[in-house]
Automatic annotation (TrEMBL), chain A:
Positions of the SKP1 component POZ domain: 26-88
Role description: Probable essential component of SCF (SKP1-CUL1-F-box protein) E3 ubiquitin-protein ligase complexes, which mediate the ubiquitination and subsequent proteasomal degradation of target proteins. Regulates cell proliferation during embryonic and larval development.
Protein name: Skp1-related protein
Sequence similarity: Belongs to the SKP1 family.
Region (Disordered): 166-201
Biased segments, Basic and acidic residues type: 169-194
Pathway the protein acts in: Protein modification; protein ubiquitination
Keywords: Ubl conjugation pathway
InterPro entries cross-referenced by the UniProt entry: SKP1 (IPR016897), SKP1-like (IPR001232), SKP1-like_dim_sf (IPR036296), SKP1/BTB/POZ_sf (IPR011333), Skp1_comp_dimer (IPR016072), Skp1_comp_POZ (IPR016073)
Source species: Caenorhabditis brenneri (Nematode worm)
Signal recorded as keyword: no
From TrEMBL, chain B:
F-box domain location: 66-113
UniProt cross-references to Pfam families, sorted A to Z: F-box, FTH, HTH_48
Organism whose genome encodes this protein: Caenorhabditis brenneri (Nematode worm)
Domain of life of the organism encoding this protein: Eukaryota
PANTHER family, alphabetized: DUF38 DOMAIN-CONTAINING PROTEIN-RELATED, UNCHARACTERIZED C.ELEGANS PROTEIN
Coiled coil: none
PROSITE patterns (UniProt xref): FBOX
The protein's name: F-box domain-containing protein
One Gene Ontology term from the biological process aspect of the record: innate immune response
Length: 201, 376
């Protein structure tokens, strides 16, 4: 099944036919609504627990408001649900040593993740938030593949990684923002040291 | 930039295509406009937008993606680290101190029966089950290669010694790393040796490398002691030494002072590369098994040593190699014996058996054996 044909229903694009099964409605933080099959939801431990706890009937799904997912935008959520629909019914990997650690990215997933870095990182974040183990595995693998053969400078550019100096500056800025008085005290102390004073007090 | 490229989409249209990866297109851009022109994530974002059919004026910074790799939770970065190939983990560890710490925390422990670390002044190799990492010193910087995946990366202006240290710590620094055999082959100047061991010591701290067998080949007399100190005492059972500063200078007493030496069960020193005073045999008596080459051995010294072995709790077998002048008959005559057997203190069913072997190099085998009953 291609990425385009994955049966995630964006309510705005409701022309795509929906199978007669139990579906749930979800809403992203930018108010985009999706209908996702019960089986696809099982890929997400978080959503699965949520819908189980809610105990919705088919009527409830239609009559009650869509379940809001406040931390994820529509673009990312669409990718997440496309992935879940494509992989519905598949076993969820358990990290007990029985599953091989080498992760292969299936063709569908590779095409789904052929996106810019910003969206890919959002997808990883969403997979983690919704606890979709296999999506997290393949997306991390995709990011790992991007590192292949790169020098430290190239890695810094690809992942926008700060250098030690930038890390230090950010840390200082955060400390200052938290406690501006601490910086003043430190400066005063340095000044007194320069003037030859032995004690601050 | 605005003056150079009025519409960035024009550049993308003229210079990029979906058949070329964003990274390769980005490298082209850097070649043309310089490395500082635009960072890769921003370029990649625009690349995909443009090839997805959206027009893109350059000055649309408000739409720049905000999620970056560094925004991901540390556990997720850890997952990513676990999925990296060893060479990529080594390179990522060089990016910053923060990433170094994440790589060290989340790197998978090495699962390999045999690991070999070889370091020369201009070449280093780390061999393990799933890869072979090689570093070659260049005029400026060094080249790192994943031999198995035929991947080569050149690190200009990077220090070769620092590179070796980084590779060592990335592959072997995991505190739960376990090896059946860990071989260290070193051919370096004393200064480089001490630099490496001092920095390894700083980085490893109290953490020790778990290896059942530690093989050391110090070539032109590299010191064994600092390397031996990285190996976990107790875990270490077998210690073959093919040459070291200590051997060359006959400093067996210093080796014998280490916990690793005291707790090992077997030692092999197949080559004589320094003075070996028979007095130093005392430092071997606690081993289950040892194989050493001696410069000389007198009858009196041998008799004294056999007595020491008779008192050893662990001793099973030893091979003493060298051009000895003693014969089996001389030994038997000196002890008024008809057979070359000696009693062991505290046991009535075991005894020491001596065998003098002839060959191009004379050798003497002493072994703990079941006591033979005298036939009438």
């Amino acid at each position: 099944m291609s990425v385009e044909n994955a049966p995630v229903v964006d309510v705005d694009e409701a022309a795509i036919p929906v199978e007669k099964k139990m579906y749930y409605r979800f809403e992203s933080n930018d108010k985009k609504e999706f209908r996702v099959s019960e089986l696809a939801i099982q890929q997400s431990e978080t959503l699965n627990r949520l819908v189980e706890a809610m105990g919705y009937t088919s009527e409830d799904v239609e009559n009650k408001p869509a379940i809001a997912i406040e931390n994820i935008d529509g673009k990312t959520l669409k990718l997440v649900f496309q992935w879940c629909e494509h992989h519905k019914g598949e076993a969820i990997p358990v990290d007990d040593g029985s599953v091989p650690k080498i992760v292969e990215i299936p063709e569908f997933d590779a095409k789904l993740m052929d996106i810019d870095n910003g969206l890919l990182f959002k997808l990883i974040w969403a997979a983690d938030y919704l606890n979709i183990v296999q999506l997290l595995n393949v997306s991390c693998k995709k990011v790992a593949n991007m590192a292949q053969g790169k020098t430290p400078a190239q890695l810094r550019r690809v992942y926008l990684l700060p250098s030690d100096e930038e890390d230090e500056a950010a840390k200082r800025a955060a400390q200052e923002a938290q406690d501006p008085r601490a910086r003043e005290v430190e400066e005063e102390f340095e000044e007194r040291k320069r003037q030859g004073g032995n004690s601050f007090f | 930039m605005r003056k150079t490229v009025r519409k960035f989409s024009d550049y993308l249209k003229d210079n990029t295509s979906t058949n070329v990866s964003p990274w390769d297109s980005y490298k082209e851009l850097c070649n043309e406009f310089g490395d500082d022109f635009m960072n890769f994530p921003e370029f990649e974002y625009r690349f995909y937008r443009f090839h997805g059919g959206e027009k893109d004026d350059f000055d649309s910074s408000s739409e720049t993606p905000k999620k970056t790799f560094s925004d991901l939770p540390v556990e997720i970065i850890g997952m990513f680290v676990k999925k990296l190939r060893p060479i990529d983990r080594i390179l990522l560890r060089l990016v910053s101190a923060n990433l170094q710490s994440i790589v060290d925390t989340y790197s998978p422990k090495l699962k390999s029966r045999h690991v070999r670390f070889t370091m020369y002044s201009d070449f280093c190799q780390i061999y393990f089950r799933t890869g072979t990492i090689e570093l070659k010193k260049l005029e400026t910087g060094y080249q790192i290669e994943d031999f198995r995946n035929t991947q080569t990366v050149i690190l200009s202006n990077f220090d070769y010694r620092e590179g070796v240290l980084n590779a060592f710590l990335t592959i072997l620094g995991h505190p739960k790393t376990r090896m059946r055999m860990f071989k260290v082959e070193i051919d370096l100047s004393i200064e480089d040796c001490f630099w490496l061991t001092e920095n390894l010591s700083k980085s490893l701290g109290d953490s020790k490398i778990w290896a059942r067998k530690f093989v050391f080949d110090g070539k032109k007399a590299a010191p064994l002691l600092p390397f031996l100190s990285f190996v976990k005492p107790g875990a270490l059972r077998t210690l073959p030494i093919y040459g070291s500063l200590e051997m060359q200078q006959g400093l067996y007493a210093e080796l014998a002072g280490t916990e690793q030496w005291r707790q090992a069960r077997k030692v092999d020193i197949p080559w004589l590369n320094g003075p070996f005073d028979p007095d130093q045999l005392q430092y071997f008596a606690h081993f289950n098994c040892f194989d050493v080459r001696l410069s000389s051995l007198t009858l009196a010294e041998l008799m004294e040593f056999v007595k020491t072995l008779g008192n050893s709790e662990n001793f099973q077998k030893c091979i003493l190699r060298g051009q000895f002048q003693i014969t089996a008959d001389e030994y038997a005559a000196a002890g008024n014996k008809s057979v070359l057997r000696e009693p062991i203190e505290g046991t009535s069913d075991r005894e020491l058996e001596l065998r003098f072997c002839k060959g191009w190099e004379g050798s003497l085998v002493i072994q703990r054996k079941k006591k033979r009953t005298q036939k009438n």
